[in-house]
Design brief:
This protein has a two-stranded antiparallel ribbon. The chain has a two-stranded antiparallel ribbon with strand order 3-4. The protein has helices at residues 2-47, 52-74, 76-87, 90-102, 130-133, 143-161, and strands spanning 114-115, 118-119, 122-123, 141-142. The protein is mainly alpha-helical.
Length: 162
């Protein structure tokens, strides 16, 4: 009986260890992707003045490569969780986190956005997120709504991995 309980306890610890490892891979991948987004966008579009769609093509290839890596390393749930974080604007929050960490008075800060002469806390480029898909493409979305959406996306991703 004691041996059965010991084996059961050790298998549970192994499952927990694998669960934690999947979470680490997904969070690490999201941080790496958002850093790639920050560095790549600022180099390619802002400094080299290349066309944004070329950069977004490169970004899509990187996202596909990370998705494939997560799928092969940790399984389908990890690949889905990573893309859910991206789709719900979590990686964009990471972009701004990197902007604040690497360039504190960042020109990419959403606090520095001005619309019609007024400082605004609304975003116009999140049209591909769940909230954005419910609105016209050029509609402004409140920053707080996108942050809440990202929190929900991260929570659901963690539930998928759990």
């Amino acid at each position: 009986m004691a041996i059965c309980l010991l084996l059961l306890a050790s298998s549970t610890r192994a499952q927990d260890r694998l669960r934690v490892q999947r979470i680490e891979y997904v969070i690490g991948s999201s941080l790496a992707f958002s850093l790639l987004d920050y560095v790549g966008f600022n180099l390619d579009v802002r400094q080299l003045h290349n066309i944004a769609w070329v950069y977004h093509g490169i970004q899509s290839v990187a996202q596909a490569a990370i998705t494939y890596f997560l799928y092969k390393t940790c399984g389908l749930s990890s690949a889905i969780a990573f893309n859910l974080i991206w789709w719900t604007w979590g990686d964009d929050l990471g972009y701004y986190g990197w902007a604040y960490a690497l360039n504190p008075p960042s020109h990419g800060s959403w606090e520095n956005r001005v619309y019609n002469g007024l400082q605004s806390h609304q975003i116009s480029w999140a049209y591909w997120t769940p909230i954005g898909l419910l609105r016209p493409r050029s509609a402004l979305i409140a920053r707080d709504a996108l942050v809440a959406q990202a929190i929900v996306g991260l929570s659901v991703s963690m539930a998928i991995l759990w």
